[in-house]
C-alpha cells in the first residue's frame, strides 16, 4: 500500500511556549471564542456563544448564580449553504428565540424557562418556519412581529404571530399589522411595537416609507437619488420625525431630525466639528442617548445620558488600559465591553455595583503583549492635514512596511485591534497606515478631495508621511503592501518614488484604471456606475484621463520585485487586471512572483487562505530583502511551522494553485529553520518526483532522518516503507511495532496509524 502523508499545519505549536516574540497565526487569526452577549429583559440571564473549532454552542448563564446551560449547538460552515447563528431575540424574561441557518435554510428555535427542571431549565423546540423577525415584543410573552410574504400576496407585510402555534398558517389578514408593501426590503418597529417605518427597493432606487400610526396608510418619505446625501434612519423621535445620520452640504455627518411629512431635514441633534458620527442610539422616548465616531483613529462612544456617562467614567478608571462601552443594560444589570488596539475585547457584567468578567472574546490572546500605534500628522503644501498610524516593534528588522488602505474613497484605517498589524509587527516590521485625502471620518469635503486623485495626490499624501517617518527612524528597507485599491497604490508608490522602496506587494489589486469604466458590471449596474464615478470622477472621457496612471501603462518604470496575487472568484476587481499586468511584466522581463487563490474572491471568507496570504507576504519580503532568520528558538519554530504550512498548501492545491517547485523550496526553508516534519514532507516530494527528479533513496533517507529527529510523520512514512518493502528490505514486524507505538498518540498521525493497522488486518 502506497499512501504516504504530508504534515498539514501546526503540528508543533502545542509544544511551544506562548511567550515567543512572534505571534503565531494559529493563535491570532481565528474566529472569536466567545461573543454576542445579550441580557434578558429582567437582567437575570445573559446569553452568548462559545466556539470550539467549527462547533458553536449558544450558552445561557444565570447572572447571580453563574450556572450555565448549553442551548443550541451547530457546526459552522462557510459555503454556499451556510450553517450559522443569525440572531437572538428575547420575547420575555423566560422566552428566547434563536434564529439560525441550517445548511442555508432559515430556522427558528424557541426556548422556554422551566424552573422545576433543575438540570436543564431551558427546553427548546424548532418552529415550523423562520420569517424575518421585526421585533420580539418583550412586553408580550406569546407574540412576535415578523416580516413575510405569504403565498399569493402582492408584497411583503408585517404580521403579529403567536410563537406557541405554527407560524405559516398565521400569515393571514387578521394577523396583519402593516398592510402589504410591494418591493419592501425592510420593516422596522418602534419601541411600542408599531410597524411604522420601512425601506422599499424599485430597480436600484431606494425609498423610505412611513406612517404616523399603525392605523394610517403608508406614505413615501425620503427617496434616495444618485445626487442625494447619504442618510441612515436611527429611530422615531415623535410620530412625524425620525433621527437620521446624514450631512448638510459637504460637512461632517451628524444626527439630524428628519420631518417625514415635509421630507426635509430639521435641526441637528448632535454634531462634531471635523468628525463624522457613525452611529447613534435613541431611548424609548425618542431622546438621543449615545453617539459614536472615530477620533485619531480610535473608536469613541459619547454618552449623552448623565447616568450612563457616570458609569463609564467610573469603570474607565478601573479598566484604565482599555476603552469601555455599555453594550446592554436591563433592570440594574449592565453588560460592558472593554477593548483597545492591543486588546481584542473582554465582556463584563456589573450587578449591584459588583463588576466581574464574563469572558474574553479571544482567551488565547491573554498570553501575548500586543502593540499600540503612534498617531502622526503631516500637513501638505495645500494645507491639508493627513493623519497616519505607525506601529513599531520592540526589536526591529529594519523594514518599514507602508500599507495603503483600499477604497480609496470613503474608507479609513483605524486603531481597533488588527491581527494583521500585530502579526507583522511581532516579526519586526514597522507598519505605516495613512488616512490620505478621500478617507472617511472627516466629512464629505475631505472625501471629495480624493475623487479622481488616484495615482496623484493620494499617493503624494502617503509618501509625504513615509518620508517623515523615514527621516525620523532611518529604516534600512522600505516596502509597500496593499489590497484592492491599496494594491494599486502599493505599486504606484514605487513608480513615483524610484529608489525609495525595495519591494511591493499587491493583492486583489487594480492595474488598469480605465478598465473600471469598461467592465460588464459598470455598464449594467447603475448604482455601481454612480459609485465608480463618485470615486474616480465622472468626466465623459474619464477612462482616457486615468489611463496614463494605470500600472500597465507604467510597467516599464517598475524597478522593484513584486508579489502579485488574486482570488479567482473575485467579482469586484476582475482578474483581467492581474493578467494584463503580468503580461506586461513578462514582456518587459520584470521580476515578480504571483499566486492564485482558487477559492477566494475579493479577499477571503476563511481563515486558512488569509493565514497563507500573510505567510506568503512575509516570506516574499524576507527572501527579497535577504533578512536574517529569527535567532530565538521559539520564533524559528513558529516561522518554520508557517512556512511548512504554506508549502503544504502549494502542493495540495485546495486553496492555492499547485507549485511543486516552490513547495520544495519552502520545505527546505522550513528544514533550515528546524522543522523535522518538513524533512518528511520533502521526502514525499522525492518519493513522488514532485517539483523535480524523483529519488527513492533520497526519500527513504529523509523519512529515516525525520524519524530519528522525532517526527511522528517521518515515523509513519518510514513504517509504511518497511511494511511494503519500498526503498528498503521489508520488515513487517518492525513496521507493525512502529505503527502501534504511533497509534498511542492523540493526533491525526495516531488516527492514520490505526487506519494502516486496520488495512493490514491487525
Describe, in plain words, how this protein is organized in 3D.
The protein is of the alpha+beta class and 762 residues long. Among the domains are: 13-22 and 635-759, Serine Threonine Protein Phosphatase 5, Tetratricopeptide repeat; 374-629, Rossmann fold (3-Layer(aba) Sandwich), CATH 3.40.50. Helices cover 27% and strands 30% of the residues. An 8-stranded mixed sheet has the order 27-28-30-29-31-32-33-34, with helices on both faces. Helix 13 (660-672) packs antiparallel against helix 14. The longest helix is centred in the C-terminal third of the chain and has 20 residues, at 633-652. Mean pLDDT is 89; it is low at 1-20.
Describe how the helices and strands are arranged:
Elements: H1 25-28, E1 34-39, E2 45-52, E3 55-62, E4 68-75, E5 84-92, E6 95-102, E7 105-113, E8 122-126, E9 132-135, E10 143-148, E11 157-162, E12 184-189, E13 195-202, E14 205-210, E15 219-224, E16 232-238, E17 241-246, E18 254-259, E19 264-270, E20 277-282, E21 288-295, E22 298-303, H2 306-318, E23 323-330, E24 333-340, E25 343-351, E26 354-360, E27 374-379, E28 385-391, E29 399-402, H3 419-426, E30 430-435, H4 444-448, H5 457-473, E31 477-483, H6 485-496, E32 503-507, H7 520-524, H8 526-536, H9 542-546, E33 562-567, H10 576-588, E34 592-597, H11 607-625, H12 633-652, H13 660-672, H14 677-687, H15 696-708, H16 712-724, H17 732-742, H18 748-759
Parallel strand pairs: 29-30, 29-31, 31-32, 32-33, 33-34
Antiparallel strand pairs: 1-2, 2-3, 3-4, 5-6, 6-7, 7-8, 9-10, 10-11, 12-13, 13-14, 14-15, 16-17, 17-18, 18-19, 20-21, 21-22, 23-24, 24-25, 25-26, 27-28, 28-30
Helix pairs in contact: 5-6, 11-12, 12-13, 13-14, 14-15, 14-16, 15-16, 16-17, 16-18, 17-18
Amino acid at each position: 500500500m502506497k499512501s504516504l502523508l504530508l504534515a498539514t499545519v501546526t503540528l508543533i505549536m502545542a509544544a511551544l511556549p506562548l511567550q515567543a516574540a512572534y505571534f503565531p497565526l494559529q493563535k491570532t487569526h481565528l474566529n472569536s471564542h466567545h461573543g454576542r452577549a445579550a441580557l434578558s429583559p429582567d437582567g437575570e440571564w445573559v446569553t452568548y456563544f462559545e466556539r470550539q473549532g467549527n462547533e458553536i454552542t449558544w450558552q445561557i448563564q444565570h447572572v447571580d448564580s453563574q450556572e450555565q446551560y448549553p442551548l443550541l449547538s451547530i457546526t459552522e460552515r462557510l459555503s454556499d449553504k451556510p450553517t450559522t447563528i443569525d440572531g437572538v431575540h428575547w420575547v420575555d424574561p423566560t422566552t428566547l428565540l434563536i434564529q439560525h441557518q441550517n445548511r442555508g435554510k432559515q430556522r427558528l428555535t424557541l426556548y422556554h424557562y422551566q424552573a422545576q427542571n433543575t438540570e436543564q431549565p431551558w427546553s427548546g423546540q424548532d418552529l415550523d418556519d423562520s420569517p424575518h423577525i421585526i421585533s420580539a415584543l418583550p412586553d408580550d410573552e406569546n407574540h412576535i412581529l415578523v416580516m413575510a410574504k405569504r403565498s399569493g400576496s402582492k408584497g411583503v407585510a408585517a404580521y403579529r404571530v403567536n410563537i406557541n402555534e405554527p407560524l405559516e398558517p398565521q400569515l393571514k389578514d387578521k394577523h396583519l399589522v402593516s398592510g402589504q408593501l410591494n418591493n419592501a426590503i425592510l420593516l422596522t418597529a418602534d419601541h411600542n411595537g408599531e410597524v411604522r417605518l420601512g425601506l422599499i427597493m424599485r430597480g436600484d432606487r431606494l425609498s423610505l416609507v412611513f406612517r404616523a400610526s399603525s392605523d394610517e396608510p403608508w406614505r413615501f418619505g425620503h427617496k434616495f437619488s444618485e445626487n442625494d446625501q447619504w442618510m441612515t434612519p436611527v429611530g422615531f423621535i415623535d410620530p412625524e420625525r425620525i433621527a437620521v445620520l446624514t450631512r448638510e452640504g459637504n460637512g461632517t455627518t451628524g444626527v439630524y431630525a428628519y420631518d417625514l411629512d415635509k421630507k426635509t431635514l430639521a435641526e441637528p441633534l448632535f454634531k462634531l466639528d471635523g468628525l463624522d458620527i457613525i452611529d447613534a442610539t435613541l431611548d424609548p422616548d425618542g431622546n438621543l442617548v449615545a453617539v459614536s465616531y472615530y477620533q485619531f483613529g480610535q473608536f469613541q462612544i459619547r454618552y449623552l445620558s448623565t447616568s450612563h456617562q457616570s458609569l463609564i467614567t467610573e469603570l474607565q478608571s478601573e479598566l484604565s488600559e482599555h476603552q469601555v462601552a455599555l453594550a446592554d443594560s436591563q433592570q440594574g444589570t449592565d453588560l460592558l465591553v472593554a477593548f483597545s488596539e492591543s486588546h481584542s475585547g473582554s465582556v463584563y457584567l456589573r450587578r449591584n455595583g459588583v463588576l466581574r468578567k464574563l469572558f474574553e472574546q479571544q482567551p488565547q490572546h491573554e498570553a501575548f503583549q500586543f502593540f499600540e500605534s503612534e498617531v502622526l500628522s503631516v500637513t501638505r503644501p495645500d494645507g491639508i492635514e493627513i493623519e497616519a498610524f505607525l506601529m513599531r516593534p520592540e526589536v526591529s528588522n529594519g523594514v518599514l512596511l507602508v500599507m495603503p488602505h483600499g477604497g480609496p474613497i470613503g474608507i479609513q484605517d483605524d486603531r481597533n485591534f488588527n491581527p494583521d498589524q500585530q502579526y507583522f509587527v511581532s516579526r519586526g516590521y514597522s507598519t505605516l497606515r495613512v488616512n490620505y485625502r478621500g478617507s472617511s471620518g472627516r466629512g464629505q469635503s475631505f472625501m471629495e478631495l480624493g475623487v479622481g486623485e488616484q495615482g496623484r495626490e493620494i499617493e503624494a499624501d502617503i509618501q509625504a508621511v513615509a518620508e517623515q517617518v523615514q527621516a525620523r527612524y532611518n529604516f534600512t528597507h522600505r516596502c509597500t503592501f496593499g489590497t484592492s485599491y491599496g494594491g494599486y497604490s502599493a505599486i504606484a508608490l514605487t513608480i513615483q518614488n524610484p529608489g525609495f522602496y525595495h519591494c511591493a506587494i499587491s493583492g486583489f489589486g487594480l492595474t488598469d484604471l480605465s478598465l473600471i469604466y469598461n467592465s460588464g458590471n459598470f455598464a449594467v449596474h447603475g448604482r455601481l456606475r454612480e459609485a465608480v464615478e463618485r470615486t474616480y470622477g465622472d468626466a465623459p472621457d474619464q477612462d482616457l484621463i486615468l489611463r496614463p496612471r494605470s500600472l500597465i501603462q507604467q510597467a516599464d518604470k517598475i524597478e522593484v520585485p513584486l508579489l502579485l496575487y488574486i482570488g479567482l472568484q473575485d467579482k469586484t476587481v476582475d482578474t483581467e487586471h492581474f493578467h494584463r499586468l503580468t503580461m506586461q511584466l513578462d514582456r518587459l522581463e520584470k521580476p515578480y512572483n504571483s499566486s492564485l487563490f482558487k477559492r477566494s474572491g475579493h479577499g477571503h471568507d476563511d481563515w486558512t487562505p488569509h493565514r497563507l496570504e500573510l505567510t506568503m507576504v512575509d516570506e516574499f519580503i524576507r527572501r527579497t530583502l535577504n533578512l536574517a532568520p529569527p535567532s530565538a528558538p521559539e520564533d524559528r519554530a513558529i516561522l518554520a511551522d508557517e512556512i511548512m504550512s504554506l508549502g503544504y498548501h502549494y502542493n495540495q492545491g485546495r486553496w492555492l494553485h499547485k507549485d511543486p517547485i516552490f513547495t520544495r523550496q519552502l520545505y527546505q526553508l522550513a528544514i533550515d529553520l528546524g522543522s523535522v516534519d518538513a524533512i518528511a514532507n520533502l521526502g514525499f516530494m522525492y518519493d513522488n518526483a514532485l517539483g523535480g527528479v524523483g529519488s527513492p533513496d533520497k526519500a527513504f533517507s529523509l523519512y529515516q532522518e525525520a524519524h530519528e529527529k522525532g517526527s511522528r510523520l517521518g515515523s509513519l512514512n518510514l513504517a509504511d516503507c518497511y511494511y511494503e518493502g519500498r526503498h528498503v528490505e521489508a520488515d513487517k514486524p518492525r513496521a507493525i511495532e512502529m505503527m502501534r507505538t504511533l497509534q498511542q498518540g492523540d493526533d491525526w498521525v495516531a488516527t492514520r496509524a490505526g487506519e494502516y493497522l486496520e488495512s493490514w488486518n491487525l
